[in-house]
Amino acid sequence: MHDAVAGDAVSDAEWLRIPDSLFYSIMSAEPVVNPNYHESKAMSDPWVARALGLDEKQARKWAKLDIAYMSAICTPRADLEVLKLMNDWNGWVFAFDDPFDEGAYTSDPIKAAEEVIATLAVLDDLHPPVCSVQQPVRHALQSCWQRFSKLAPPQLKYRWKRQLTAYAVGVLQQVGVQARTAAGEREGKAAKPPTIEEYMEYRAGCVGAYPCLGLMELAEGIDLPHDVVDHPSLSGIARVTVDLVTLQNDICSFKKDIDSGETANIMFLLKDQGMTTQEAADRVGQMLHDCYRRWYTHLVALPYWGDSIDRQVLKYIEGCRNLALGNLTWSLYTPRYMGDQGQRVRATRMIKLR
Predict the structure, then answer these.
(1) Which GO terms describe its molecular function (predicted)?
(2) Three-class secondary structure of residue 16 per DSSP
C-alpha cells in the first residue's frame, strides 16, 4: 500500500520535529512508577524467556526493551502478582503479533485466520493444557488467561475475553489489508489506500491497547457493570486512549519503520496524500489535539451512577490516562524505537531520520 512512500520517506527531510501536543493536556502529567517495578521485571523476564523458548540473545533483547517499565506506569498501584501478569501478557502480545506484522502470516489470510482461531480457543476454560515446547506462544497466553481468571470477577473476565477476541480480529483485518496490497502489486495495480478514519478504525483493533484496559481494571480492583463500561461516554474515553496509543506509536516508531520497511504507519498514509514528512507529523499533532478535545467532551457527558459506581468510574478514567501515559513514556525510554536517543528527542522534539 505504501511501499513506494516508505522507500523514499525521508527524501524531503533529514530531521523531523515531533508534535509538541504529544505532551499536552492529559499527557502532561508526571508518570508515577509502580514501586514493584524492579521486582516484577526480575520475575517476569525469565518467565517470558522460558515460556516463549527464547534463546540467550533473544532473552537479552527482550530484557533490554524493559516492557516492565511501561507496565509500572500504566498500573502504578498494581500489586506484584498483577504487575507481573501484565509484563507476561506483554511478552505474549509481542510474540503473537510479530508473525502477523512481518512474518509468516503477513500476506496469508488463511494461515493467519487458522492461527487466530487456535489462539482464541485457549481462552476456553475446558481447553487442555497447551504444550510449551510445541506451541510456546499459545501456552503463554493460556497461562496469562488462567491467572487472570483466578483473580478477576466474572464480568471482568468476560470483558477481557471480549477484548482479546477483538484484538485478534483486528490483527486479521490488518493481514487482510496487507494481502490486498500484495495482490494488487502482483497484478500491477495500486491498492486503494484506506482513509484516515479507516486506518484509525482498524489500528484501534490491532494495536493491542484494548486488552490492556482489562488488565488495568484488574490492577485497580475495578468491578463495573457492563452497562457502565459500555456507556458511550466511558467507551468513548477508552477509544480516545486507544487512538492516543496508535498516534504515539506511529510518531515514535517512524524512523524504525523507515529502516525496517514497515508501512503500517499513519505517517506514510499522510505522505501518500501529498504531504511532506513534516506536514504529516504536524497533521498527527492536530489529531492529538482532537483526541484531547474528545476526551473532555466525553467527560462532560458522563452520567452519575451513585457514589460507589462513580468512585470506580473515576479510577477507570485515571487508568485510561495512565495507559496512554505509560505507552508514551516507555516509547521514549526503550531502545526499541530510537536507540539511546529517546530522552534527547523528548527534550529537543527532534528526530534524526538519516
Answers:
(1) metal ion binding; terpene synthase activity
(2) strand
For residue range 138-162, list pLDDT tens digits in order.
999 999 999 999 999 999 999 999 9
To the nearest 5 percent, what fractions of the chain are helix, strand and coil? 70, 0, 25
* Distance (Å, whole) CA 62 – CA 46: 10
Q: Write phi, then psi, for 195 (nearest 5 degrees).
A: -75, 170
Domain ranges of the chain: 3-352
pLDDT tens for 241-279 read: 999 999 999 999 999 999 988 888 999 999 999 999 999
Q: Which residues pair with 15 in a beta bridge?
A: 352
Looking at the domain covering 3-352, what would its CATH class be? mainly alpha
Q: Report the amino acid identity of residue 130.
A: V
- pLDDT for 174: 83
CB–CB of 194/269 below 8 Å?
yes
- CA 63 – CA 26 distance, rounded (Å): 29
- DSSP 8-state code for residue 17: E
Which class for 189: exposed (0-12), middle (13-18), buried (19 or more C-beta within 10 A)?
Answer: exposed
